[in-house]
Amino acid sequence: METNFESSQALVTYKNKLLLLKRDRFDKKTAGFWCLIGGGAEIGEKPEETLIRELKEETNIIPSNYKFLFKRSSISKPEKFVYIYLVNLNDEEFKNIKIGDEGEKLQFFYLDEIKSLPLVEGL
After folding, report:
1. Rounded to whole angstroms, how far apart are CA atoms 20 and 50?
2. Which of 41, 89, 83 is nearest to 62 (CA)?
3. Rounded distance, CA 44 to CA 1, Å?
4. What pTM was computed for the model?
């Protein structure tokens, strides 16, 4: 098991758009900023388990089609790694999206639209 694993994040796509989460006021440092879907690992979790749990918590999705892309150093803890996955939603998964307890809003964007958004550091 990866001992330097910190979190998993997903590039969630549907029909050439990327799903982002707008952070809510409860996280003062990132409130109002857009981020990828994902989050920190719980004790004993593998990166893939964290990905699936975070997607369910934040979007109500249990992905059927996902692929590991790469891992990168964490911005807050450079000795730790963030695992990045690609998640391609099918029509049924898209219909089931609803925001969980975290975040203010979920929205799909074309890549050129993302350039003008306030993004969390590192995105």
Report:
1. 18
2. 89
3. 9
4. 0.90
Q: Per-residue confidence of the chain (123 residues) as pLDDT tens digits?
A: 566 888 999 999 999 999 999 988 777 777 789 999 999 999 999 999 999 999 999 999 999 999 999 999 888 787 889 999 999 999 999 999 999 888 899 999 999 999 999 998 877
Q: Are 21 and 64 in contact (CB under 8 A)?
A: no
Q: CB neighbours of 8 closer than 8 A, spacing ≥ 6? A: 38, 39, 41, 47, 48, 50, 51, 54, 82, 83, 84, 85
- Calculate the CA dihedral of residues 64, 50, 115, 103 and round it to 10 degrees: 100
